[in-house]
Amino acid sequence: MKLLALVLVVLVVPAAATAATTTLHLTEKQTFQHYVDKGAKGESPGDIRTFGGTVFQHDTKIGHDRIRCVVAASCDAQVWIPGGSLISKGFAANGPNFSAKITGGTGKYAHARGTVTVVGGPVTRYTVKLVG
User: C-alpha dihedral over 103, 130, 83, 5, to 10 degrees?
Assistant: First the structure.
């Protein structure tokens, strides 16, 4: 479950796509999780986990996120923040700490590119670096 919360964090990292490099420090608190057992009983390849939560910056709620992972495949995530959303597609969350690419967004983040670094724990922390 912590791994899933970490994935959420990856999506929840907003930043301005217009700056040369913009770094945001965000936290996420998971508020829901759904599991669909599509294969053999218990967790197995092809099963789907969807989860999400509330995203904070400096202890202020600024948005929410949703992550969808297919077991033994990849994850997609989206975080809605003021001005639009950030999207990360096709990443693997290998443990509670990982990095993923920002592959796009909506609104003022429509052409967002960069990375997000996720550190799991009681509160998931992520650092988003947007480029260009």
Answer: 70
Tokens of 96: 């509670």
Q: What is the DSSP letter of 68?
A: E
Q: What secondary structure letter does DSSP report for 37?
A: -
pLDDT bucket at 97, cuts 50 / 70 / 90: confident
Which residue would you say has higher pLDDT here, 48 or 122? 48
Other C-beta atoms closer than 10 Å to the C-beta of 50 total: 14
Q: Which of the four pLDDT bands, split at 50, 70 and 90, describes residue 15?
A: very low
DSSP helix, strand, coil percent of the chain (3-state; round to 5): 10, 60, 35
3-state secondary structure of 120: coil
